[in-house]
Amino acid sequence: MLSIKNLRASVEGKEILKGINLEVKAGEVHAIMGPNGSGKSTLANILAGKADYEILEGEVTFLGQDLLELSPEVRSRSGIFLSFQYPVEIPGVPMVNFLKASVNEHRKFKGLAPLTAGEFLKLLRAKKEMLHLDTELTNRSVNEGFSGGEKKKNEIFQMAMLEPKLAILDETDSGLDIDALRIVAEGVNALKTPENATILVTHYQRLLDYIVPDFVHVLYKGKIVLSGGKELALELEEKGYDWIKNGNE
Amino acid sequence: MEDQDKLLNDITTQEYQYGFVTDIDTDVIPKGLSEDVVRLISFKKKEPEFMLEFRLKAYREWLKMKTPDWAHLKIPPIDFQETIYYAAPRTSPKYQSLDEVDPELIETFKKLGIPIEEQKHLAGVAVDVVMDSVSVTTTFKKVLAEKGIIFCSFSDALQEHPELIKKYLGMAVPTTDNFFAALNSAVFSDGSFCFIPKGVRCPMELSTYFRINTAGTGQFERTLIIAEDDSYVSYLEGCTAPKRDENQLHAAVVEIIAMDRAEVKYSTVQNWYPGDKNGLGGIYNFVTKRGICRGVSSKISWTQVETGSAITWKYPSCVLIGDNSVGEFNSVALTNHHQQADTGTKMIHIGKNTKSTIVSKGISAGKSDNSYRGLVKVMPGAINSRNFSQCDSLLLGSTCGAHTFPYIEVGNKSSIVEHEATTSKIGEDQIFYCNQRGISTEDAIGMIVNGYAREVLNKLPMEFAVEAQKLLQISLEGSVG
Ligand SMILES: Nc1ncnc2c1ncn2[C@@H]1O[C@H](COP(=O)(O)OP(=O)(O)O)[C@@H](O)[C@H]1O
Ligand SMILES: [Mg+2]
């Protein structure tokens, strides 16, 4: 589904990603771990098409297409979803309007007619139930005045509405209390199918108690320095990131 | 919600979609201004003597006045002798039904997306359509008449209710008020008149669509709204004008009088031709709008969405004379390309316990310049009065300007005046967030701007709010990337 080959990227002249290789197949869950500042968010943002970065080398294919050629909105419509580490507030724009525009753009891309107001509300209700979400969030403006936990739940809710092929969750677990964490994890698990894939970016092992990854990668100073199965996360938890740092200085 | 979606999909690439000219027979008098022209206008309109006196007095005063130069605007010199001061559609007799109306005109309304016949049935809106200067058709008159409400063209009102006009005209905006008000008073062609009698709540929104149509015709509308004790009316003014390369002068005057416990809501969506991308052409819009809360506990609110005109000079104001009276000003002013706007309000507190609220949302894009100018004046006798002002500016890009000029004068110690102002830029992060959900940059900007203006848009009647949202989005086309 996703293939990253020797990806190097810089921001403001500073090289952040120094040759990333990653293969993600349908049905898989990959965890990307690593200390702060390793480049995890940079990788997630580049996959989603954020403009701030310069690609120095490498290629990324997504479902057979050159991903780096596509505009961010086309990437989204093609099935890439990014749950932001810091979701931004858009004052005055009701969440329902935003979501409806979003869902209908995705439908248009697939050649489907836009949902009527009735159909949309039905879908909204179904997804809310599925995630055990309180109804109030969708009536407010996009992320405006949301607590950290509410913002993250809202990201997962949007993911549920859009049913992406590849979901990239950037630190969706950080700042969540145990209940919120469970809601988020249940949501991610419920949305898992053999056809889609998930990349979990996190620096805690905690989330991986709830969402069991097929692969764990350790990103450090812009490179994947270790890859393994789910046991790797536990090992990291036990030995701490110093273990990686010491081996890679 | 569905509307919003429709709007978002509705964006097309044209610069100004209402740019066309209707080919209707017009009766035009030669260009230029003199006492004779003033007399001729009054004569053609078969006006009562007092009206001619009013006009001549204004004209003589106007001759002594100068164009105001205090606004943050670059106004090219205007040659008042190059303007045509009167044009009326020649299709003179009034119609009982739309079938009798010039099909060209009906076609015009269709292009504008204003099917009057549908509006009559669906929206319950009485429409007094002003085509150039003379009313062509007035609807719903009968329904209104049953309640004793008068809603008609200014010319008709002069024939049928001269005593009301004589009593109230110039009460809120005297002929000497300012250069453009004096000019309007001398040469106004037509406009609307509205009278709500004691205790009557007007059952529908009263709506007027203005259109400037004849090449080189200055448009001088005059509107007078009177709300007697315990009455209520919501009045809508909407405007679109055909595309022209020469500049067109517009100087309207709107006066509102509210008596004891009366409430008047006045909403405007102004979308006149703003000129092209290079700043060529466009309407010069110099408007004087003022409401007087004469009665106790009366209320006047101005809500405006200004997206059009090359130059906007406009300060809808409230004079709060009655104790406990309330004034409101809610404004969204959007400028793009080379547009210039200097707009705001004046709240004059005279009565005790008077209250005013100002919410101004400026949006600037392109090379435009957008200023808020507001005066809050609390007289010594206006004890326990309050004002709250919120003036926000949103910038799109770095070549546009936003300015805020608040003037505050408080004449007593028991009154409280608060002023808040913010300036922000549209965030790349907000746009990327929308992009990541599949929404294009252009739609994202439309959405963010509409969100920013929502507080004001929410004050508009429903059918107007939809049009306003669409306008904000269309007006920002070409401002991205
Ligand atoms: N827009 C940016 N401008 C400047 N530096 C950036 C920007 N984005 C990321 N960086 C830098 O890149 C490095 C990696 O950041 P990031 O990808 O956020 O790490 P992580 O998500 O692993 O904590 C950090 O040193 C950070 O300061
Ligand atoms: Mg990060």
How is this structure best summarized?
The complex is a heterodimer of chains A (249) and B (481). By secondary structure, chain A is of the alpha/beta class.
- The helix/strand class of chain B is alpha/beta
Main β-sheet, spatial strand arrangement of chain A: 6-9-10-3-11-12
- Major protein interface: A-B, 39 and 28 residues
How many beta-strand segments of chain A?
A: 12
Shape of chain A: globular
Q: Could you give a short account of the major beta sheet of chain B?
A: 11 strands, mixed
What is the CA-CA span between the terminal residues of chain A? Answer: 33 Å
End-to-end gap of chain B? 27 Å
Any overview of this molecule?
The complex is a heterodimer of chains A (249) and B (481). The two termini of chain A are 33 Å apart. Chain A contains 8 helices and 12 strands. Chain A is globular, with a radius of gyration of 18 Å. In chain A, α2 crosses α3 and α5 packs parallel to α6. By secondary structure, chain A is α/β, with parallel strands linked by helices. Chain B is α/β, with parallel strands linked by helices and 481 residues long. In chain B, 25% of the residues lie in helices and 34% in strands. In chain B, strands 5, 6, 8, 10, 11, 13, 15, 16, 18, 20 and 22 form an 11-stranded mixed β-sheet that branches. Chain B is globular, with a radius of gyration of 21 Å. The relative contact order of chain B is 0.11. The N terminus of chain B is likely disordered. Bound molecules: adenosine-5'-diphosphate and magnesium ion.
Outline the secondary-structure elements.
The complex is a heterodimer of chains A (249) and B (481).
Chain A lengths: L1 E10 L2 E11 L4 E5 L6 H9 L5 E9 L2 E2 L5 H7 L1 E4 L6 E5 H15 L7 H14 L10 E2 L5 H15 L3 E5 L7 H14 L5 E5 L13 E6 L2 E6 L2 H9 L2 H7 L1
Parallel strand pairs in A: 3-10, 3-11, 6-9, 9-10
Antiparallel strand pairs in A: 1-2, 1-4, 4-5, 7-8, 11-12
Chain B lengths: L1 H8 L16 E3 L6 H10 L4 H15 L23 E3 L13 H9 L4 H7 L3 E6 L2 E5 L2 H6 L3 E4 H7 L1 H7 L10 H9 L2 E7 L9 E6 L9 E7 L4 E9 L7 E3 L2 E6 L4 E9 L11 E11 L5 E8 L4 E4 L2 E4 L5 E10 L4 E10 L5 E10 L4 E10 L7 E10 L5 E10 L5 E10 L2 H9 L4 H17 L4 H14 L6
Parallel strand pairs in B: 3-7, 6-8, 7-9, 8-11, 9-12, 10-13, 11-13, 12-14, 13-15, 13-16, 14-17, 15-18, 16-18, 17-19, 18-20, 19-21, 20-22, 21-23
Antiparallel strand pairs in B: 1-2, 3-4, 5-6
Helix pairs in contact in B: 1-12, 2-3, 3-9, 7-8, 10-11, 11-12
Bound molecules: adenosine-5'-diphosphate and magnesium ion.
